[in-house]
Amino acid sequence: MASPEKKVHQLVDHLFRHEAGKMVAILTRLFGIHNLGLAEDVVQDTLHQALKDWPFGSIPDNPAAWLMTVAKRKAINIVRREKFYRNFAGDLDTLLKSEWTASYTLDQVFLETEIADSQLRMIFTCCHPGLPTEAQVALTLKTLCGFSIAEIATALLTTESNINKRLYRAKEKIRNEGIDFSVPTGLHLRYRLDAVLLVIYLLFNEGYNSAGDNPAIRKDLCLEALRLAMLLTQGPPTNEYPPVDALIALLCFHSARLDARIDSNDGLIILEDQDRSRWNAGLIGQGMQFLSRSAAGSTATTYHLEAAIAAEHCMAPDFAATNWQRIHDYYTALEQLKPSSVIRLNLAIATGKKDGPQAAIALLHQLETHKALENYYLLYASLGEFYYLAGRKQEAVDYFQKAKNLTRSPAIREVIDRKMAR
Amino acid sequence: MDQFLIIAKGNYIMPQSPEEAQKGLSLFNDWVQKVLNGRFVGGAPLDEKEGRLLKSSTEVLTDGPFIESKEMISGYMIINAADLTEATELAKQCPLINNYQLEVRRLKPMP
Predict the structure, then answer these.
(1) What percentage of chain A's residues is helix, strand, coil (to nearest 5)?
(2) Using the 8-state DSSP alphabet, how is residue A5 labeled?
(3) From A9, which residue of chain B is nearest by alpha-carbon distance?
(4) I need a labelling partner for B35 at 20 to 30 A (CA). Which of A64, A79, A346, A370 fits?
(5) b or e along B41-61 (b: 16 or more beta carbons within 10 Å of the residue's beta carbon)?
(6) How many domains does chain B contain in total?
(7) Residue B8 domain-assigned?
(8) How do residues A54-110 score in pLDDT, each as one tens digit?
(9) Nearest to A138 by CA among A108, A167, A109
(10) Residues B69, B66: Cα–Cα separation, whole Å
(11) Residue A235: per-residue pLDDT
């Protein structure tokens, strides 16, 4: 008989999800990207076996190692069984098909360093600029983060069949266009790395700002984005690119506030009302470290500026003490770097905080003609807020009402209701 | 206090995602730690691929899974309980009940 009670461990949060991501990466390294589906099947099979065996009181001492060992054993069987009619990864194919070298090659690929390398390759493949952005995001969630189709659909506010289609087309494109499974080098690296950073940024934003009403999934998205970004810092060449550090700093600052912005009823607490003692000091400290590392380069990217803005908020002891002058300056620089209506909206808000409500109202009214902001609740909510601060209650209520009609998010609607009730 | 054998029969339903698989395991952990609370003796899954059914020392009836899959034994657990009623109540709270049929039997103490 196996396992007395003390051996029944508590599993680390998201262990399966993260191990699934690792295993898919390593098996794809072995089988080749054209066999991504096979890699996913083997992983599913491995988790399946764990779930069948472990509940009888015998969760292994090192569950992650157990999963990896089982996946490896299954991989050996597949290589033996299918070597006559399947091609594996180009550079390993011959080695895997010879009995002399097969098991040695497998051992090498399953080394810890190679696992990290495989994940990096997977990031670059999923975020290949040849794929449409929404496919990049879905593929990243599926293969690197171990999300199920249903979870991705919830996270991205769309249907499961939609996600299935996106993934199917993406995989088809990877096969047909010969998108490879490698970390790019030389001049390509920066360009491709920028694409990776953008996907991570979008992933995070999806979790942080989306209108989805499942806070748990949304928090997972944010933390997954941070985890993927951290993978880029583990070694060269990806850790030698300052925008990576800038993005991580930004994600750290925002993640630090995740818990403080949700109240006990899953409602949203706006920055002004957040209990700053609930901000995660560890993450803020980490963000500061990455922010100073990111200063190594000669160019400031949008990530640098956004991180600097987030840092100002994190360092202010309370809302009133926020350094609006500096935030205003960062937004001005950001607006020049990436002219966008949303940034001008933020700039208007910062101006209002710095120079008073009248200045903001004038700027906000100019933005009303912007196509991109036409149906954006935040523009009208901001107008409402500044009219309120200017003492013009009737206009304030009208704009708040308009903002409320433009958002579906119950959490945001509630915040607006509270604003109107003042 | 007697010992009871819980036999899990049948094949279970495959989880939809890694997260779901893990949740299943945490539920089991909770059962062992919070519900059984020291009354879990042990258990093991059974290899579903191979086995032998012997009729005598010379005759092997079958090799391989023996019966219909809904009757196949997937694993067993042994727990401590005051009587069959209590053992049954504990088994009902076991999350494996969602995936398997559970047979609860008292182990006769050998004097």
Answers:
(1) 75, 0, 25
(2) G
(3) B29
(4) A64
(5) bbbbbbebeeeeeeeeeeeee
(6) 1
(7) yes
(8) 888 777 888 899 999 999 999 999 999 988 888 898 888 888 888 888 888 889 889
(9) A167
(10) 9
(11) 82
- Contact list, A56 vs chain B (CB under 8 Å): 8, 43-45, 75-77
Question: Among residues B69, B71, B91, which one has the least CA distance to residue B79?
Answer: B91
Q: Minimal Cα–Cα distance from B13 to chain A, Å?
A: 9
Q: Token pair of A213, please?
A: 């009403």
**Chain B: closest CA distance from residue A82 (Å):** 21
Q: How far is B58 from chain A (nearest CA, A)?
A: 28
Angstrom distance (rounded) from CA A47 to CA B23: 12
Of B17, B24, B44, the CB nearest to A2: B44
Q: From B73, which residue of chain A is nearest by alpha-carbon distance? A: A52
Of A227, A206, A208, the C-alpha closest to A154 is: A206
Beta-bridged to residue B52, according to DSSP, are B63
Residue B91 pLDDT: 94
- Per the structure, the complete domain to which residue B58 belongs is given by 2-106
Q: What is the pLDDT of residue B64?
A: 61
Please provide the DSSP assignment of A174-232 as one string.
Answer: HHHTT---S---HHHHHHHHHHHHHHHHHHHHHHHH---S-HHHHHHHHHHHHHHHHHT
B38 in reach of chain A (CB within 8 A)? yes
Indicate whether B111 belongs to any domain.
Answer: no
Q: What's the CATH code of the domain at B51? A: 3.30.70.1060
- Residues of chain A falling short of pLDDT 50: 1-7
Inter-chain contacts counted by CB atoms under 8 A, chains A and B? 104
Do A131 and A172 touch, CB atoms closer than 8 A?
no
Best mutation target among A40, A51, A53, A152 (most B Cβ atoms within 10 Å) is: A51
Which residue pairs from B35-40 have beta carbons closer than 8 angstroms and sit at least 24 positions apart in sequence? B35/B90, B35/B93, B35/B94, B36/A5, B36/B79, B36/B90, B38/A5, B39/B79, B39/B80, B39/B81, B39/B90, B40/A5, B40/A8, B40/A57, B40/B77, B40/B79, B40/B80
Structural domain ending residue among the three candidates A51, A76, A110: A110
| ipTM value > 0.85 | no
Would the CB atoms of A51 and B25 count as touching at under 8 Å? yes
In this structure, is residue A222 part of a structural domain?
A: yes
* Token duo for residue A313: 């908020």
* Smallest Cα distance from B57 to chain A, Å: 25
Question: For residue A237, is the peptide bond before it cis, meaning its omega torsion is within 30 degrees of 0?
Answer: yes
d(CA A8, CA A54): 9
Tens-place pLDDT, residues A290-338: 999 999 888 889 999 999 999 999 999 999 899 999 999 999 999 999 8
Cβ contact (<8 Å) for A51 and B15? yes
β-strand partners of A92: none
User: Which residues span the domain enclosing A138?
Assistant: 119-227
A11: nearest CA partner in chain B: B26
